[in-house]
Structure formats: structure tokens, C-alpha cells
Amino acid sequence: MASLTLNENHERIIRKQLESGRYEDASDVVSAALEMLDDAGDGFDRWLREEIPARMAELDANPDIAIPADEVFAEIDALHRARLQREG
Predict the structure, then answer these.
(1) Please, are residues 21 and 15 in contact by the beta-carbon 8 Å criterion?
(2) Residue 26, Cβ neighbours under 10 Å: how many?
């Protein structure tokens, strides 16, 4: 098949996974990662095709459930600041 060139960070990740005992060799780690990537892509595609249109239809049917963008961003900012304080 194909040969891969990995940077130091990727090699570190593979070593960490091998040390965990979950995988027998680097090929197993890469295979698992590719399967997870594929599953995530399928989930994202499903979200775009099904969830987003359903939420838009719900919003069209009941516009009162909408939250103004400035409120959403203010809440995200507050959560981010709280997280920085906890980690800080």
C-alpha cells in the first residue's frame, strides 16, 4: 500500500497508544485512528443532512425559541473565562 511519513508528535502519539497495551503495533494504531476518522465523518455528514434541517424546521415553526447570537457568544466567553481561571 502506501508508505507514511510521521512527524515527531504523531510518533509520540503512536508510542503512547502502544504503551497503553491496547494495540499490538503501529499499524493497529493507525487502523483504529482511520476507523475513528471515518466514523466521525459519517456522524458529521448525518448531522448536516438530518439534524441541521430538522433544527431549522423547528426554528421556522417556532421562532420564539431562537437565542440571539450576542447572548450565545457572551455565554461562550463566560465559559471560556471560567475554564481559564480553573486551569490557571
Answers:
(1) no
(2) 16
